[in-house]
Structure formats: structure tokens, C-alpha cells
Amino acid sequence: MKAVLSWLARTALLYVLLALAIGLALLVPADLAGDLARETASLEEVRAEIATERAAAQERLESRAEEIAALPLAAMEERMGALTLQRDSLRREIDGLEGGFLSAYRPSRVLARKRAEIELALVTSELELLEAAREPRRELGRAREFLKANPRMPTEAAIAAVRRRCARDRAALAEFETRWDIEQQARELLRSERSELEQAARESCERAESLAERRARALEAIAQARQARSALAALAPADLPDFAGDIPRTLLRDILQKALYALLAILLVPPALRVVLYHGLAPLAEKWPPMRFHANGPAPRFPPAAQSRVSIAITLGDNEEALVRQDYLQSSSLKGAKRTRWLLDWSHPVASLASGMRFLTAVSGAGEEVLVSAVRDPLAELALLDIPPDGAAVVRPSALAGLVRKAGEPVRITTHWRLFSLPAWLTFQLRYFVFHGPALLVLKGGRGVRIEQAARGRIVGQGQLIGFSTDCAYSVIRTETFWPYFFGREPLLKDRVEQDEETGGGVLLVEEAPLAGRSGLRRGFEGAIDAFLKLFGV
């Protein structure tokens, strides 16, 4: 009944959300919908619109070129002043469009910037046309003023006639100068003949030169006017640059598409990978040969172990020494000898440091009692694993709170790599530490450590198995149900420990609650560290 009510509540909530979404979609204004459509325009659509804007601007520029050719000089000057102000305003507008959130990728901002750049190029080209037309217009004005002031241009025949008269007057003056001086003086005195001849020659020759100069200046003005008209008629604007070439290839639509593809990959790839791992790789790992860590021959049986407790009192025998972590040594005998043991095993310094088995307190003395308990972890419980002589157990060093050994005889610890084992890679544990007896290990775990007989084989969840005796075969098995694994509630593989029938009965060490006492954030952070340490067997 509770599941049915929960389903009805979720369905009703989904219905209400869909109704609100549809209602909000109907309330969206048309201009806002258009803005949304423009913001999701593709690169091809943006380039096509820019090309259209550029073609329209090119047509406007060509029509303005014809208008400029007919403008008077004063109108040109006024137009150039207005265009200069407009050019400065457009430059400021373009600078203002450069910034903003995703301005380089939003189609609306890209189009606004490109329109301003096209308008700026149009204004700049028109200014160049006006600058090119100003001097021809000025030359044409000067030529027109000259021709207006001199409407009648002397002909060549008139100039020739005046030049002939100049020649006759000069010849008459020369003929007069060939006479006797007394005659010249007499003629000049009586009739001023010499002066009249000189004045007539001067006037006729000056008139001839004046007419010739007026004709030359008129011809030059006509040529200048023709040249100015040709320059004005030849005014042609240059083609505007291609503004669509420097548009970024990634626009907001592309970013949204890539984000959608990434979202689909995030949503679909993990489930697909889970299906492949569960139905393809996990069965192969399940059939992989189990790992074995003992030598051939019968293995000694482990003595029965008591249940885990919050604190354990250890009484030391003759020639025995207890090595206990600082945060697990609750109390010790007053008379017992104590010293600092820097590392559990100097042959494995990194593993000792990473597992916490560093700066240990070594307590020795026959009959001395050491009380081991978790001082800082309220959920930790302890258990004792007695490894007999010639016995051995695979144990993660991080699960140790301490150990008891023979004084002066370090516990023998060996490492075994499994680099070519598929289960080792899938469980992220490539190295295994084997503790050889005789030794008494103090194991710690969240809510306790269970030491149980392997019997006919046991299946343990990932992260709970902290060790097993070497007379057991270790392998993995696929989790029993698919859907809990598919939804992330169960791991892909579980640990499988089987008793070796030839060597005898084995034990396995199981932590009751590995994640007990960890919050979500702490669990994720410490889980990542634990996974890294587990890769190297720590």
C-alpha cells in the first residue's frame, strides 16, 4: 500500500510540473521566444545572416557613390564631418560589445557586433569615397568659375590676326628707325610719329600675348574640368571585407549540443558499462583460477577465536613483546618496559607508514598486562587472531591495532603481487601481505571483526574482507542480483573464500561495518584514499 501511494504521489507531482511547464511556455512573449531562437541559431544561419547584411551594405555603398559624385563641395564637407562622428560612435559601440558573459559565443551578440562592424566599414568606405571626390570636385569648381568669368575663348584665327598686326606694327617701327636721325627727330617733333609707332606695336603685341594666354588658360580649365568629371564618374567603392570568416566555429548552440552529448554520455555510458561488466567481464573473472598463498603440504589449524570486543586485555608471557598503536593503547602495567618502535616492519616502510603501524609503543615483561581499546573511534571493536607456528594469514596492515611477538624476533611478513590476475585488477588489489606465525594479531574493525571458519566456502561483500588464512583459496564471484548492481546498490564482485580440503580448515576475517561512523563527505574522501591503499594491499 505504501509503494502504491508513493507512486501516485510521484505521478501527481510530475503531472503538476508538466502543467506548469506547458503554461509557462504559452506565457512566453513572442519577442522573448524570438530572442531564444536567435540565441540558439546555428553557425550556418549566423553566417548567412551576416552575408545578407554585407550584401545590403555593399548595395548602399554603391548607391552612395553615385550620390557623392553629384554632391557640391560644401555638402561633401558637411557629410564628412557627420560620418566622422558616426565612425567614432560605432567604434565605441563595438568596444562595448566585446565584453559580457559568453559574448563570443552568443549568436545575438555576434550578430550585433558584426552589424556594427559592417556599418563601420560602410562609413569608412564612404569617407574614403568623399576624400577621393573632394579634390576633383574642387578642381571642377575652379574650372567652372574661370570659364564663367571668361565665357568667350579667343579663337586661333583672331590670335593669328592680332599677331600679324603686331608684326606689321613692329615692321613699321623698324622701317622708321632706318631713316636719318635728323629725319626721325623731325618727324617725332612734328607728328610724334615714333611714339605712335611704338605704342601701336606694343599694344598689338600685348594683345596677341593676352589672347594667347587666355586661350591656353581656357583650354587648361576645360581639360581640368574633363579630368575632374572623369574622376567623379570613375568613383567606385571597394568591396567590403568578409565579416563571416572570423566568427568562432563554436556558438552557444554548439556548446548546448556538446553539453547535451556530455549529459547523455554521463547518463547512458555508466549503465551501458555496468551491463557490459556484469554480463561480459564479471563471468570471466568468476571463472579465473583462484589465488593461493600457501606452500604445498598440510597447514596447521588456527585455534578458535573469541568474539570481538570493545577492549581486549593481553597478558604477556615470557620473552613476549606487544606492539600497539598509540591511539589503541588504553593502559598498560606500571612496571612493564616500554619503548618506541618506529615502524612495524623496516623491510616495508611505506606500507607501515600508510597503514598507521608507525610510532608504535613496544611493551615487554612477563605477566605484564596491556589493555588495547580504540581511544578515538567509538564504533571500533577488536579481535585476536592467533597465528600458530608454521601458519600464515593474508591480512591488510591497515586492519591492525597491534600484535604480540617474541621479543627480538620480528614477525615475518611477505608480499605477493598478482599483476596478471583479472580479479586482482577488478577488485583493485594487486599486492597481498602475508603474516607468518607464530604471532598474535590484534585486529580492528567498525562494529567489530568476525573470525569464522571457511567451512564449505563463504561469500563476503567488497570491503568487508580484511584477511584469510593461507590455506584458503581466494577468488571473486559476481554479485547475485543484477538490478541492485545496476542501480549502484551492490558492487560488481564479491569476495569468495573457499577452504582447501587437502590442507585443512581455514579462517577468514570479516569487518562488520567498514563505513560505520563516516559521513557522506568523509566517506567519499576516505573511500578514495582506502581504494588507493587497497591497490597496494595496505
Please provide a written account of the structure.
This protein is α+β, with helices and mostly antiparallel strands and 538 residues long. Helices cover 51% and strands 19% of the residues. A 6-stranded antiparallel β-sheet has the order 4-5-2-9-12-7. Strands 10-11-8-15-18-13 form a 6-stranded antiparallel β-sheet, with no helix packed on it. The longest helix has 43 residues. The radius of gyration is 54 Å and the shape is rod-shaped. The relative contact order is 0.08. About 3% of the residues have low confidence.
Quick overview:
By secondary structure, this protein is an alpha+beta fold.
Name the average pLDDT: 80
Rg is: 54 Å
Helix percent reads 40-55%
Structural class: alpha+beta
Head-to-tail CA distance between termini: 48 Å
What is the number of beta strands? 18
* Largest sheet entry: 6 strands, antiparallel
Which strand order do you get reading across the main beta sheet?
4-5-2-9-12-7
- Percent strand: 15-25%
Tell me, briefly, the overall form.
rod-shaped
How many H/I helices?
A: 13
Provide the low-confidence segments as ranges: 25-34, 519-524
Topology:
Layout: H1 2-27, H2 30-39, H3 43-70, H4 73-97, H5 107-149, H6 156-176, H7 181-191, H8 193-233, H9 252-286, E1 311-315, E2 320-324, E3 329-332, E4 337-343, H10 349-355, E5 358-364, E6 369-373, E7 380-387, E8 392-395, E9 400-406, E10 413-417, H11 422-426, E11 431-436, E12 439-446, E13 449-453, E14 458-460, E15 465-469, E16 472-478, H12 482-486, E17 493-499, E18 507-511, H13 520-535
Antiparallel strand pairs: 1-6, 2-5, 2-9, 3-6, 4-5, 7-12, 8-11, 8-15, 9-12, 10-11, 13-18, 14-17, 15-18, 16-17
Helix pairs in contact: 3-5, 4-5, 5-8, 6-8
